[in-house]
# Entry
Amino acid sequence: MLSSFKWRKIFLLYFSLLSFSAFSQLENIPPNQDTAFLIESKVLHQPRSIWVHLPEGYSPSQSYPVLYLLDGDAHFKYVSQLTDYLSDYDRNRIPKIIVVGIVNIDRGKDLNIHYDLLNGKKDLSKISVSEGSGKFLKFIELEVVPQINSRFKTQPYRILMGHSLAGEFAFYTKNTLPGLFQAIILISPAIHDENSSLIGDFSKMLQRKDLKGKMYISLGDENTQKVNLITEQLRRFAPASFEWDFRHYKEEDHFSVTYKSMFDGLKFIYKNWFFDNYSSTLMTPEEIQQRFESLSKEFGYPIQPTEDFVNNRGYKQLRAGNIDIALNLFQQNVRNYPDSWNAYDSLGEVYMKKGDKKSAIENYKKSLQLNSDNADGKKILEQLQSGNKN
# Structure
């Protein structure tokens, strides 16, 4: 028989192991929302892989702008993480965005510019659409973009990113189909001497009366000649409706410049998006409406405030004692996000604060129908129904 002392030692050892086990359980890595599919391309006459990253909280009841990455296999991972980071509630620098990686089989064959022949020689005034970049652009326009629009909930706002040779292709794309992408990020574009006519074409494109959009250009510590020619055309011809910016990252080289460029490029495109979610500023429903009407006008499609944004403003008004304004905001959230349990939970709380017990009960019930795990809501509902809350 074991002595009482030994029993105590065993018990303490067992308790220690149990406690260690309880506090050292493995925390799983959050799953990503990446997927891939094949396009059986009729333009390229071969199957092509498309990679897609959906933003955190992606919902079929909402629609999202789309960022297209040339050289998708090289940039997909870090750009997907970057867009999630910048669109997170704490930062709120850009909206939730879908990222599409266009993967090449033969990069040079896809991206290099080819010219039609005239009397057996290259006609540098006519870029071929039956091979090279002309054919690849047709693939993107006629197959990639329509497939993304049919498979996912997208807004008519598309961003194209291209680096190096893909930067030249993105530049060619803007010249050829100015309306296909509303914003372009050119990172160290490798404009070949043979293709210098692209810069002349660019100046003509900039003088279109209907031109709108945004362009962000960056360069590492490398030859600035071609980029200087591009920015000179922008200074001379870009209308006010076409916003642009250029950054020279002298501390980066041709290959390391991409990350900073994407970070700054997305912030440039969405420079008017940011609002500090931790600000103590109170906003009325009218002020929120004005803000998002302005964003809608800038980006060319209806943009409604996010659920978190309105919920945050509602609670700020509630804490300030402005119950009717808070009620208005929470009602707006329920209208815009009828499938959100949290929207009904917040609306139930403001009705409870207002003394409208019946409406509070109705909204807490709706919240629990949408999310039966809402423990706090369940507890409050029980208190309301038992008469413990006014």
